[in-house]
Amino acid sequence: MIDFKNKPIFLAPLAGLTDLPFRQIAKKCGCDVSISEMISANALAFGSQKTIKMLERAEGESPYIVQLESSDAKNLAKSVEFLNTCDGIAGIDLNCGCPVPKVFKQGAGSALLGDPKLLCTLIETIKKTSNKRYTSVKLRLGINESSLEDFAKDIESAGADYIVIHARTRAGGFSSEPNWQAVKNIKAKLKIPVIANGSIDELNAASVLENTGADGLMIGRGAIGKPWIFSVLKGQGEPSAAQKKELILEHFALACEFYGKHGVAMMRKHLHEYSKGCAGAPVFRTKINAEGEAKKVLELIKEFFSI
Fold first, then answer.
1. Active site residue 98
2. What angle do CA 194, 222, 183 make, to 5 degrees?
3. CB atoms closer than 10 angstroms to residue 46
4. pLDDT tens digits for 69-110?
5. pLDDT in tens, 228-274
6. Domains identified in the chain, total number
7. pTM: predicted TM-score of the whole model, two decimal places
8. How far, in Å, CA of 21 to CA of 17, rounded?
9. What range does the domain containing 290 cover?
10. Which residue among the candidates 98, 120, 256, 278 is catalytic per the annotation?
């Protein structure tokens, strides 16, 4: 289902950003593989309705991967058993890269990089419980220093079908220079596909593939406010201002449909990003921040992006 021979481009899971409406826009722009926002396995295991809603996918959103965060094998197994009853999910991904303190303190996300044995146990749990095609892992290179190379083979042996590597440590946050040499070293050790992630854009995508030997790319923040990056990377060129406006309006409509009265609030951060670099953006942001009525925000969008 995922064609690794053709270097697929994934949309990274970003909490509060890569929800169903945004994923629909990204897919329209050429994203090959979409992933849910990070889902708490504990919340899913205990039947949180809010969490279950986060699992929803759009018609035609395929391949679609669900990402779980957990440090508890029992609750992870329960959440996977629930996902087994859900159609349209191609795979389950274990988050081993989230640097957020709340997640880290629970021993999940990037904290698992400090406990390779538990990390591999969690992968094995997904693999033996899941009825989905793929079991995958998204990781950083380490916590404070690069250590993933030391146990990458163990992850493969635990049952991962492919891995995604954010080319920074947890300590490196989102601003340190990505370590593509480390990704290349890990790729050379593994038989499974390796997807490269970390500040990838139109300028460096080709060189990242060439320098790491990666089997695909994952783009996160580079797609927020610019979902057409997928079509640009596939050689289709930059969309016109009118085409961008059409996508933004469609995104707004999808958000309002999905979230109802909360759609306006959920779109504000996206509208902030869409307006970056545009003349009059600060005034536009101030206006939409103060407006809660969808019809009025719609008019503001139409007016601003016609400039």
1. yes
2. 25
3. 12
4. 999 999 999 999 999 999 999 999 999 999 999 999 999 999
5. 999 999 999 889 999 999 999 999 999 999 999 999 999 999 999 99
6. 2
7. 0.94
8. 9
9. 241-304
10. 98
